[in-house]
Amino acid sequence: MITDKQTILLAKGGIKGWGNNHFKSSTNRTPYKKTNGTLGEKKFINLELLLIADVGLIGLPNVGKSTLINIITSAKPKIDIYPFTTIIPQLGVVYIEKKTFIIVDIPGITKNSSKGHGLG
């Protein structure tokens, strides 16, 4: 899955069966009948999670997230004095001795960000 809210059918379900309630009538209020449904597909699926970063910096606007990325990596995100300078995530690679990891600068989090308000 590559895009947001993308759906993929991995296995088709079976056909439902009918339970007691389906067979209820005016003369038989508590039937003990059922029909079996059919089984769906059975598959073994191996999913792999692809991460874009090892570390994410989150926080309020204008707290220095981009400045930190600028100092500890070779990335050069736009830095300015007004809020929401960062509007798309910025990636940087941190090199420590013989190891590396990817750090991402996320746009500022504000009240109701989870509801689509602001840019975070």
Automatic annotation (TrEMBL):
Biological processes per GO annotation: ribosome biogenesis
Superkingdom in the source lineage: Eukaryota
Annotated Gene3D superfamilies: GTP1/OBG domain, P-loop containing nucleotide triphosphate hydrolases
Domain named Obg: residues: 1-52
Signal peptide per UniProt: none
InterPro entries per record: G_OBG (IPR031167), GTP-bd (IPR006073), GTP1_OBG_dom (IPR006169), GTP1_OBG_dom_sf (IPR036726), OBG_GTPase (IPR045086), P-loop_NTPase (IPR027417)
Protein's name according to its UniProt entry: GTPase Obg
Organism of provenance: Cacopsylla melanoneura
